[in-house]
Automatic annotation (TrEMBL):
Belongs to the anti-sigma-factor antagonist family. CDD domains: STAS_anti-anti-sigma_factors. NCBIfam families: ant_ant_sig. Transmembrane segments: none annotated. InterPro entries: Anti-sigma_ant, STAS_dom, STAS_dom_sf. It holds the Pfam family STAS. This is Anti-sigma factor antagonist. It comes from Nonomuraea monospora.
Length: 127
């Protein structure tokens, strides 16, 4: 049985999680649990480095969508980085690619998340 491993780092307002291995029905709950345990609070943006994930199934997609919804409800976002061909194909065929923040590089995803995590200037908006 293939294993699924994770690592993480915290940046201001952003949790970066790297996964390695296949995320499918037997392992999707591990991804969900790791995301829940690793982020410091619900309002944090999450960057998920999928560069070493060759396969996602519908169970994994469900975890990604639930994470996206929870983050969005709390004013944050889920950013996916460096999808391999299999996971990218799943997002295209299920038409969820446009719903999720997909970035071609980890650096691009982190930059977007950090920019989104910065507080808005008080009184800077137009009426």
């Amino acid at each position: 049985m293939p294993s699924l491993t994770f690592s993480s780092q915290h940046l201001p307002g952003v949790t970066v999680i790297a996964a390695a291995g296949e995320v499918d029905t037997p392992t999707a709950h591990l991804l969900d649990d790791y995301i829940s345990r690793t982020r410091r609070h619900h309002g944090e943006h999450i960057v998920l480095d999928l560069s070493e994930v060759p396969y996602l199934d519908d169970s994994a997609l469900r975890v990604l969508l639930q994470t996206h919804v929870l983050a969005h409800r709390n004013g944050a976002g889920l950013h996916l980085a460096e999808l391999q061909p299999g996971p990218a194909h799943l997002l295209r065929t299920t038409e969820t690619e446009g719903l999720l923040n997909v970035h071609s590089s980890l650096e691009q995803a982190i930059r977007a998340a950090l920019l989104a995590a910065r507080p808005s200037p008080v009184g800077g908006g137009a009426s």
